[in-house]
Specification:
Length: about 220
């Protein structure tokens, strides 16, 4: 007798084994049941594989993040360099060439009335002479605003106070200030002139011309007698 046993599990459940005999009158019915269970087995297998696939999606997690936009470096607003003061007369005749002594002169002045009127900075340049008033340069041969004068500030300053350390003993200096506006570099007219006697002593001032009413620049001398 040819017998064959065909065990068909259904989604993991235990089902009885079907024993079919070639001459069994219920053979066709058993075959139909076997095919029916086989179809269910295939369906369960597909469903189980699908559930395994879905569960695996939760085991591997991938996170996508947008890259942050590159932030350009902030550009620091840099103030323009201060303009150079026009030269003394003759050229390179600067107060720095005078050796520093025991005395100093502190100069102070009032700010220009046009400062900031058009959004541009006002800078100041100082000049001096020894033994006489500072004379304005009326010619065009040199770029110096004065004649036979020394430039005290190589670069224009924005403060309204300056200390001159390079003064000689037994000297009488006359100081003057001019204003320069950034952008055009055109110097203003002279301020009043300030006397500085080194060392401090009683001596008649002569820097300002007679009848002058300007009181823009002042000089204070201090040091060792």
């Amino acid at each position: 007798m040819n017998r064959f046993r065909h065990g068909i599990p259904w989604c993991g459940s235990n089902h009885e084994n079907l024993v079919m005999h070639p001459r069994d009158p219920d053979r066709d019915q058993l075959i139909r049941k076997a095919l029916h269970r086989a179809l269910w087995t295939v369906l369960c297998t597909v469903l189980l594989l699908g559930s395994y696939s879905r569960s695996s999606e939760f085991r591997i997690r991938v996170e996508l993040h947008d890259l942050p936009e590159s932030i350009p470096h902030a550009t620091a607003l840099r103030k323009p360099d201060p303009p150079s003061c026009p030269p003394g007369d003759p050229a390179n005749n600067d107060a720095l060439s005078t050796p520093a002594g025991d005395h100093k002169v502190t100069l102070s002045w009032k700010a220009s009335t046009s400062s900031g009127s058009d959004g541009k900075d006002i800078h100041y340049c100082l000049y001096r002479t020894k033994g006489g008033r500072v004379q304005a340069n009326a010619g065009t041969k040199t770029k110096s605003p004065c004649v036979n004068c020394q430039r005290v500030t190589l670069e224009a300053v924005t403060d309204t106070i300056y200390k001159d350390d390079h003064v000689e003993n037994d000297s009488h200096y006359c100081y003057v200030a001019i204003a320069i506006q950034t952008g055009n570099g055109n110097p203003s007219s002279f301020s009043n002139q300030a006397d500085a006697v080194i060392p401090p002593r009683k001596e008649a001032p002569f820097c300002n011309p007679p009848g002058s009413t300007k009181t823009t620049v002042g000089a204070t001398q201090h040091g060792t007698h």
